[in-house]
Amino acid sequence: MTLRFDKVDLVHVLDEVLAEFEALLAARQLRVARYIEGTSVVRGDGLLLGQVIRNLLSNAVKYSPPEAQMDIRMAPYLKVEGDVQHHMLEFAVADRGVGIPEGEQDLIFEKFVQSSLTRSGAGGTGLGLAICKEIVALHGGEIFACCRLGGGAEFVVRLQAG
User: Fold this and answer.
1) pLDDT of 29-68, one tens digit each?
2) Whole-angstrom Cα distance, residue 108 to residue 130?
3) How far apart are alpha carbons 125 and 113 in whole angstroms?
């Protein structure tokens, strides 16, 4: 895979992806709340980062009940490793679906693995999150999932700020 690293405005990429999802969001009567703080520029491959956003939004739409709200958040994040500080951008997509059982939050990033709560009937191959993990790793970032208070899942991506 050839990467083309440039400065990428993730808000611009997000807007493009949301435009692609507009009809599906309307059909399911899903609302999207955006919380953007600070800069949204990272160094990376815009096409590949767009695929990460697309995969995460696709999952959020798939697992959200009709008429629910999905939350998208971007904010600066300071990662400290010993004496070194890394200025990152944290991008998160949260739904109000069934969530991810304890103990499966790392497993769902493996190829062909789906959560025990979602593998029956939701569709998919179990590759979307594995692809996201590989793309984020190629960018020197990190991705993880957690359960939301009150139900649902949140997927968090941290990338080097641009």
Assistant:
1) 999 999 999 989 999 999 999 999 999 999 999 989 999 9
2) 8
3) 8
Selection from 55, 44, 53 nearest residue 72 by Cα: 53
Q: What is the DSSP string of 7-64?
A: EEEHHHHHHHHHHHHHHHHHHTT-EEEEEE-S--EEEE-HHHHHHHHHHHHHHHHHHS
For residue 120, which amino acid is it? S
Q: What is the pLDDT of residues 21-31, one digit of tens each?
A: 999 999 999 99
Check residue 84 and report its DSSP letter.
Answer: E
Name the residue among 86, 85, 94 with its Cα closest to residue 60.
Answer: 94
Encoding tokens for residue 32? 């999207």
**DSSP H or E stretch at residue 69:** strand 69-81
